[in-house]
Amino acid sequence: MSRLLKIHNAILKLSIRWKIFFAMMIVAIGITAGVTQFALWQQEEIITTNVVITGHFIAASLADHIAGLLAQSQYFEVREILKSIQQKDDRILLIAVNDMTTPRKEIVAAIGDDQWIQSTQTIFSDRVHVLNGMDQYIFFEPVHIRGVEKLLGTVRVGLSLKFMHERLVQTRDTMLAIMAASIGFALLLAFVISDTVLKPLQNLTSGILKIAGGQFSHRVKVESRDETGVMANTFNRMTENLTILQEVSTILNEQAGPQEVLTAVLARLARNISGKTGAVVFHGVDAEEMVAGEAEETSLSYLRKLRADTRSETTEHPNPRVEPSRLCFPFFSENEITGGIWMVRPTTSAIDEIDERLLNGVSDQLESTLSKLEFQYRAVTDAMTGLFNHRYFQQEINRQLERAQRLGTAFTLVMADLDYFKKINDTYGHQQGDIVLRGVAGAIRKSVRGKIDVACRYGGEEFAIILPETSLEGAKIFSERFRHAVEELDSDFKGKSVKITVSIGLATYPEAAKEKRQLIECADRALYLAKESGRNNVKTYKDIKG
Q: Which CATH class name applies to 390-545?
């Protein structure tokens, strides 16, 4: 057992080329040895059969021919017949005729070596006889006159088997030559095969080393369509996927918001992936659907249903949806579905395991990044309205002051407060009050300039809006637009129409104040003035001074 283990370990240490050499040589030797053995056995059977047929024919023909002569004791004529027969076939070593009618049943006619003739005296059946290392096949035939049962004599014919051995040796030598040629051809074939196999493997090994060294742009040349070609193509796709994942990681570190993250990542995927790619994030308080890339209703419906089904206390990450032409990986955070990414291809180009692994890797990175962004968003967002909270307002106004001081620009602070909001809460309940707050927040979002202006819930029913690089006149235009938007809100409470209005105060840096506290006080005083002036109007810091 230990010897077999040593042989096994030695084989494992051999190079692939030597393993192929040895395997091909063993196969060649095995096949040619088997063919040789079969050929020798087949030829021996054929020659033996031929010898038996020939021997029986000679012995039977001779016995029939000399029966009359033996009955008349014409031994001389019998001898002449024997000589003529021997001359026709050089395989005949001996022919002996015994006259069984004589007292001694002696040999009356014979040709061949006396020693051979005497040694076969006791043979009365067909068999192989060996003398002095020489083989011969002895055939025995009784001599009768046709129609008479009396035994007149016997005939023994000995055929040499030397020619058979020579023929077998010749066949063996021929087969050995064929075996040698086969081994040579097998070794040549092994060299060609090993070179065909090893060259792609060496290229693949070189590629792996380059990838390990950080050369992610390296690709292995695909030179065939066999298994090594498939391996090289798979390696190249793996390298491309590593490059994509590395670039996606860089993108995620550079982008600020969920929409930008999804758009940038999908744009990168589109450079290498055929088919449609898209993603969605259920963002914010109201789980607003942020869709990027190409929308695909089947995947969107799947994610919406999955989000609705997994709002229980589950902690298990849901499985992706994998179909021959569609992949959909959900994002999961804090026990709920937060979005997902999908890939859709035509039915003629099926999605394989490499595509699945790539999208899984991208999904994991997106899930982690979007989860962090959502956490950061919620940390600075008011849960009721979806606007920024008071904490973020304080941070942002500090940034705007520092920026305005550095660039020498102006910005305006808008302070807004709902009119008679306490009465709405007392009359219709806090739930209706919450609806009003969310409606006003929606009106603010429609009025601000996208990501330029900063809208915050300052506290209670009071809102603060920072308008960067906006003069007092520009802020008044914005405020009037916002005030009218609030007036147009649907305020049907239990079948009763209630008018919602807002009072607004404005203060512009640096005209109204150069410090944060003073600027906020200025805007507050303008707001109070708007309240005192009948509500549902806009006042500025200049109105206070006047």
A: alpha beta
